[in-house]
Design brief:
By secondary structure, the chain is an alpha/beta fold. It contains 7 helices and 16 strands. It has one domain: Metallo-beta-lactamase, Chain A. The relative contact order is 0.18.
Length: about 325
């Protein structure tokens, strides 16, 4: 039975989005590249070419594919979050770093989670490469995008709702963002992040795309300990334009504190030029903010694109 959703989720938007005046100012100031080319630091983006490690009993792992795309392995299952393998996304925005893992090297995928419908998170050419029986977990009102493309196992969730696939639990949690994919669908679908936990396994959090705000503390109130969170740290400049939708590195670190996160893995930088900050700046500022917050250096998972980090039962606390 198809669920009935409101026509708009505009009441969930935290702050007013940039309007015509802000767009005109952005154009006057050089657009999303500003006065200098952010990609001048492209050579400083860390990448590795390594095979996926084999996991032993009870281990989980995160592999950064690039941007917000992660391969998450937990409970013996493989999950893709916001998968984007395309060479470019609409708007003539081309990929600047290759996917960290070739598509053909992926294990069989047990589920796909999507945070929201923006093109850098929901990529049609990549989704078409998946078997149509792949379980898809999508935000409220986004399910029809998948069923129209032949997917047969699609679950839509509102904030705080839960679903289980192959023994892995998924909870859709709030974020400070917005949605649009066409000219007339502003905020017609929901946005958020995902809490993922296999039975007895670590609590894993993919935050999707988000500005900073009170909802991270709400997540922390419900989940008193998150073992590792994938937090967005890029696409934040200029702040007067991006602040309502994207956290900056210091805010991402604070969000991890608010959400009771032990380890933070970064994302949403180093792949596409979507804003004015230099491409490697998010990493530098995140390391600085993490140290300033007094967090242990080993708990910042500063992954290279293509790198895998493993979480063993003995290392959880």
């Amino acid at each position: 039975m198809t669920r009935q959703w409101p026509k708009s989720f505009a009441d969930r938007v935290t702050e007013p989005l940039p309007g015509r005046r802000e767009f005109l100012r952005l154009v006057r100031e050089g657009g999303f590249r500003g006065k200098e080319r952010p990609e001048r630091e492209l050579g400083e983006i860390p990448t590795v070419d390594e095979p996926l490690p084999q996991l032993t009993g009870g281990q989980s792992s995160l592999t950064w594919i690039g941007h917000a795309s992660y391969l998450i392995r937990t409970g013996g299952r493989a999950i893709l979050a916001d998968p984007v393998w395309s060479e470019a996304i609409p708007g003539r925005i081309r990929r600047r770093t290759a996917p960290g893992l070739p598509w053909d090297d992926l294990p069989p995928i047990d589920a796909v989670v999507i945070s929201h419908n923006h093109y850098d998170h929901l990529d049609a050419p990549t989704i078409r490469r998946l078997p149509r029986r792949t379980p898809i977990l999508a935000p409220a009102a986004l399910g029809s995008w998948f069923t129209r493309r032949g997917f047969t196992d699609v679950t839509e969730l509102d904030w705080w709702e839960q679903h289980t696939v192959a023994g892995v639990g998924f909870e859709f949690v709030p974020a400070h963002h917005w949605t649009r994919r066409g000219l007339r669908d502003l905020n017609h679908t929901l946005w958020g992040g995902w809490i993922i936990q296999a039975d007895g396994g670590p609590v894993i959090y993919h935050a999707g795309d988000s500005a900073y705000g009170h909802r991270f503390a709400e997540i922390g109130q419900r989940h008193h300990h998150i073992d590792v969170a994938m937090m967005p740290i890029g696409a934040y400049a200029p702040r007067w334009f991006m602040g309502s939708a994207h956290a900056d590195p210091a805010q991402a670190v604070q969000a991890s504190l608010d959400a009771h996160v032990q380890r933070m893995a970064w994302m949403h930088w180093g792949t596409f030029v979507l804003s004015q900050e230099p491409m490697a700046e998010p990493a530098r500022l995140t390391r600085q903010a993490w140290a300033a917050a007094g967090r242990p250096a080993e708990d910042l998972w500063d992954l290279a694109i293509g790198e895998t980090r493993v979480l063993s039962p003995a290392t959880r606390s």
